[in-house]
C-alpha cells in the first residue's frame, strides 16, 4: 500500500499457556515523496513549506501550458480566442433560431386569430334556430 498502513497477519503466539487468536499487525509505509517532504519539513517553517508547494504547483502549471501552446497556434490568447469564436458562433445560431421561432409563433397566432374570427362570423350569420343546442346527457 502506498503512503498508508499495510496490514499483515502474524503467527499465533502462546503466552501463559493460552493460545491467542492471530490479530492484524499494522505497519506504516511511507512513499518516497512523503519521505522527501518529511526531510524538507524538518528544517523549514510552515511558510517555507507552503512557498515550496506553491512553486511546485506553478512549475506544473507552466509545463502544462507549454504543452498546450502548440494547440493554440503559438499566439497569445489563442485558446481563448478560439473559445470566444466558438461561443460567438453558437450565440449567433441561437439568436437566429429564436427569431425563427418568434416568427413561427406570430404566424400561428395570426392563423388562430383568423380561425376564431371566421367561426364567430359563421355563428353570427346563422339564425338562432339553426344553432344546435347543447346536448344534455340522458342515460
The residue fraction in helices comes out at 55-70%
Q: Name the helix and strand elements from N-terminus to C-terminus, one letter apiece.
A: EEEEHHH
Query: Which outline best applies?
Result: elongated
Q: Low-confidence runs (pLDDT<50, min 5 residues)?
A: none
Number of individual domains: 2
* Main sheet strand line-up: 1-4
Count of β-strands: 4
Radius of gyration: 40 Å
The biggest sheet, with number of strands, parallel, antiparallel or mixed sense and barrel status, is: 2 strands, antiparallel
Mean pLDDT: 76
Structural class: mainly alpha
How far apart the termini lie comes to 82 Å
Task: Describe the 3D structure.
The protein has 139 residues and is mainly α. It has two domains: 24-74, no CATH class; 76-124. 60% of the residues lie in helices and 10% in strands. The chain is built from three helices and four strands. Strands 1-4 form a two-stranded antiparallel sheet. A two-stranded antiparallel ribbon has the order 2-3. Strand 2 (14-15) and strand 3 form a beta hairpin. The protein starts with a strand and ends in a 14-residue tail after the last helix.
SSE inventory with pairings:
Layout: E1 5-9, E2 14-15, E3 18-19, E4 24-28, H1 32-43, H2 46-68, H3 78-125
Antiparallel strand pairs: 1-4, 2-3
Features:
single chain, 139 residues, mainly alpha, 2 domains, 3 helices, elongated
